[in-house]
């Protein structure tokens, strides 16, 4: 009889700790993946937003080429009649974090169907750890072919677009 | 023969007393451990929910900008020049204190403009913004 009482008491003594630890373990199972998942997903969302900005810059490059062919003078760009290039640096929004560069390359600018390859590059600074940041460059490329419509140069339809993206990172 | 038996009984009583007191200490220790860990866990959850909320807002802002940009790209150049400097759409209503802005700046000539579409909103007293910048021209993309 004594032995039975002792065993019962022993179980009661440890039960609170065991229940407590079980609750903690249960909460940890939910909390830890929640924490580890949300942080990288935030980076993905930021990158997605910056990819949109990069694509808009790439499209800006295409618009610039169309304008140069219609109203400007593309012969002032670097290169020769086979291909011409232009880089627009710091195409940026004041008071915003978005800083973009555009690299434009026009193949056969004097021909019947000039081919435009325009790459928009957006840089943003993301914190890596305390006191350390990484400047990441996100690129989107739009490739289109132009054609004559009357006296004007326009995008050929359907647009021959070749989206391409790459990520480069360097610690600063 | 009786002495050892008595000693055993005394020892058993002492142990029993010790065991009875251990429960309260355990309760206290467990409560302290639970409190500390629960506070840490709660902050983890709050941090996670904060990140999810910011992600949601960034996505809504980006989508609103893209939507407005697509609308503008399908307009004629003359209509773009007379655009209102602010815009709104149903997605923006999900952002607290939000507003959309369209800014058209002069660029190289009359037939090319620098277009900036921005969304502003506030989150926990902080002012946040997203911008997309591009060029538009009279004979440009979608204006054949």
Account of the protein in words:
The complex is a heterodimer of chains A (172) and B (144). Chain A has 172 residues and is α+β, with helices and mostly antiparallel strands. Chain A has one domain (2-171). Chain A is 40% helix and 35% strand. Chain A has one helix at residues 2-70; strands spanning 78-79, 83-88, 99-107, 115-129, 132-149, 152-155, 165-171. In chain A, strand 1 and strand 2 (83-88) form a beta hairpin. The radius of gyration of chain A is 29 Å and the shape is rod-shaped. The N and C termini of chain A lie far apart (74 Å). Chain B has 144 residues and is of the alpha+beta class. Chain B has one domain (2-137). Chain B contains two helices and four strands. Chain B has helices spanning 2-73, 77-81, and strands at residues 86-87, 99-109, 112-123, 126-137. In chain B, 24% of the residues are buried. The mean pLDDT of chain B is 83. The chains are: A alpha+beta (172), B alpha+beta (144). Chains A and B meet through helix 1 and strand 6 of A and helix 1, strand 3 and strand 4 of B.
Summarize the structure.
The complex is a heterodimer of chains A (172) and B (144). With 172 residues, chain A is an alpha+beta fold.
Task: Give, in spatial order, the strands making up the sheet with the most strands of chain B.
Answer: 1-2-3-4
Structural class of chain B: alpha+beta
Count the DSSP helices of chain A. Answer: 1
The proportion of strand residues of chain B reads 25-35%
Kindly provide the radius of gyration of chain B, computed on alpha-carbon positions and rounded to a whole number of angstroms: 34 Å
Task: Specify the helix fraction band of chain B.
Answer: 40-55%
Reported for the largest beta sheet of chain A, the result is: 7 strands, antiparallel
The low-confidence parts of chain B are none
Instruction: Tell me the span between the first and last alpha carbons of chain B.
Output: 115 Å
Instruction: State Rg of chain A.
Output: 29 Å
Poorly predicted regions of chain A: 1-5, 127-131, 158-172
Shape descriptor of chain A reads: rod-shaped
**Global mean pLDDT of chain A:** 71
Described by strand count, sense and barrel closure, the largest sheet of chain B is: 4 strands, antiparallel
Strand content of chain A: 35-45%
Query: What count of structural domains of chain B?
Result: 1
Average pLDDT of chain B, rounded to a whole number, is 83
- Total DSSP E strands of chain B: 4
Task: Give the CA-based shape of chain B.
Answer: rod-shaped
